[in-house]
Design goal:
By secondary structure, the protein is of the alpha/beta class. The protein has a domain of 225 residues: 3-Layer(bba) Sandwich (FAD/NAD(P)-binding domain), CATH 3.50.50. Helix content is 37%, strand content 25%. The chain has 14 helices and 19 strands. A hairpin with a 2-residue loop joins strand 9 and strand 10. The longest helix is centred in the C-terminal third of the chain and has 29 residues.
């Protein structure tokens, strides 16, 4: 049996770094190539949720405790209307105890630091913009914009929504990502005070007129928030004559506190508008010695907070199969990996998309019916279905990957 010696990972995001950490843990020489030249750019971004399944996946590569140490453990997920009415409240302590892992809120930069430390900064090549790859009988070669190349036994495309590796796999033709019809204005603000935003609750507010608002505390000083605006609602947000915080404060002026306080406390430069895209579920993540993971394979909207979680799951599952792969049979191994992940990620993509459409409603009657639906079903049926979708014993409860001798730098 010919064991895997060298892996190339394109993209130093969450999926790419997680895959590299898992492969190195098993003694497979791995290098990560990232187009962005500045390491500070890798540590940018706001906050987000890692649900129980992602923490369990990180446990398989020995990183769950380091990630959890810089996170806030969530105890409640609370749904409210824009009038302040509570629509549903999920108690998370029970699932946390039963599953054996918490749901966490954290800075994206914290997760990146933990993953980068596990991989080693010396193994992350910055400013290496991949332009494609070629394959021959001896392995696969990545090509970069500066004319350099890198050769390995396998190439992992973790280069995001508009993946160059994915485009090369499809011979230069790729349909565009699917736009969801809304924008997430994301920010972290300094806002101490348990009376303003209590620690341990993720607030999910649904409003009229195509508006939503999400927020939670990241630590004693900071709060993460997302203002989600449909295109119709965003058309009325004037960022020409006002800065972003003032424009958003006006859009949410009738919402209950602390929404207005959170927005007003935020510096203009901290607010990042992100148009939300995904891709309809489809196969074709692998060919030969190349495979896609994360947003390059299965991008999804933010409504389940599972984009990062599914990237982590795929990365850990891939590292596990590559750790015992025969390089002579690598194409079959990668196809089997894709097959094992396709249905689960497709369910996530589809469900997340459908939830997002609920937030596009502008009509008051439709919004009222949506709120009544949430009151009737979100504490029972929706919660049960969400956890059934989230947890998968075959993947999240898999064995911890063995630690082999670390390859030489």
């Amino acid at each position: 049996m010919a064991t895997l010696r060298k892996a190339l990972v394109i993209g130093a995001g969450i999926g790419g770094l997680t895959a590299a950490a898992g492969l190195l843990r098993q003694g497979i020489d791995t290098e990560v190539y990232e187009a962005r030249p500045n390491p500070d750019r890798l540590l940018s971004g706001g906050g987000f949720m890692l649900w129980h399944n992602a923490v369990l996946a990180l446990r398989r590569i020995g990183l769950d405790e380091a990630v959890a140490a810089g996170s806030v453990h969530m105890r409640y997920h609370e749904f409210r209307s824009d009038t302040g009415r509570r629509l549903a409240r999920w108690h998370l302590d029970g699932p946390t105890e039963r599953i054996g892992a918490p749901a966490c809120a954290l800075r994206r930069s914290h997760l990146h630091r933990v993953l980068t430390d596990a991989v080693g900064a010396d193994r992350v090549r910055l400013g290496a913009r991949c332009t494609g790859y070629t394959e021959d009988a001896d392995g696969v070669t990545a090509h970069f914009a500066d004319g350099s190349t890198a050769h390995g036994d396998v190439l992992i495309g973790a280069d995001g929504l508009r993946s160059v590796v994915r485009g090369t796999l499809r011979h230069g033709f790729e349909t565009p990502p699917r736009y969801a019809g809304y924008t997430a204005w994301q920010a972290i603000t300094r806002l101490p005070g348990e009376d303003v935003v209590p620690t341990g609750t993720f607030f999910n507010l649904w409003g009229r007129g195509g508006l939503r608002f999400l927020y939670c505390r990241l630590n004693a000083e900071e709060v993460y928030w997302d203002a989600i605006t449909s295109d119709r609602a965003a058309a009325a947000i004037d960022t020409v004559n006002r800065d972003r915080t003032a424009a958003l404060a006006e859009a949410y002026r009738d919402w209950p506190e602390p929404v207005g306080q959170i927005i007003r406390s935020t510096e203009e430069a901290a607010v990042l508008p992100v148009n939300i895209f995904d891709r309809p579920p489809a196969g074709g993540w692998s060919r030969g010695r190349m495979v896609l993971i994360g947003d390059a394979a299965h991008p999804m909207t933010l409504n389940l907070s599972q984009g990062a979680g599914q990237a982590i799951e795929s990365a850990v599952a891939l590292a596990a199969v590559l750790g015992r792969a025969d390089t002579d049979d690598l194409p079959r191994t990668l196809r089997a990996f894709e097959e094992s992940r396709r249905a689960r990620t497709a369910d996530m993509v589809t469900t997340s998309w459908r939830i997002g459409t609920l937030g596009l409603a502008h009509n008051r009657v439709l919004c009222r019916l949506r709120d009544l639906f949430m009151v009737a079903f979100f504490d029972s049926v929706a919660r049960s279905q969400s956890y059934a979708l989230m947890m998968d014993d075959r993947l999240e409860r898999g064995p911890v990957l063995p630690v082999a001798a670390r390859p030489p730098t």
